[in-house]
Amino acid sequence: MTADRMITTVRRDIPASDIGFCHSHEHLFIKKGQPELLDPSLVLDDYEMTKAEVETFKELGGRTIVDAQPVGSGRDAALLLRLSEETDIHILSSTGFHKLGFYPDGHWIHHTSEEKLRDLYIDEIENGLFADGEDAWPEDRIGARAGLIKTAADFEGTAGPYFRLFRAAAAASLETGVSIMSHTELGHNALDQISLYTDLGVPEDRLIICHLDRKMENADYMLHVAGTGVYIELDTIGRYKYHSDEEEVRLIRMLIDHGHEDRILLGLDTTRKRMKSYGGDIGLDYLQGSFLPLLRQSGVTEEQIHKMMHANPAKAFSK
Question: Where on the chain is N6-carboxylysine found, per UniProt (predicted)?
Answer without folding.
Answer: 150
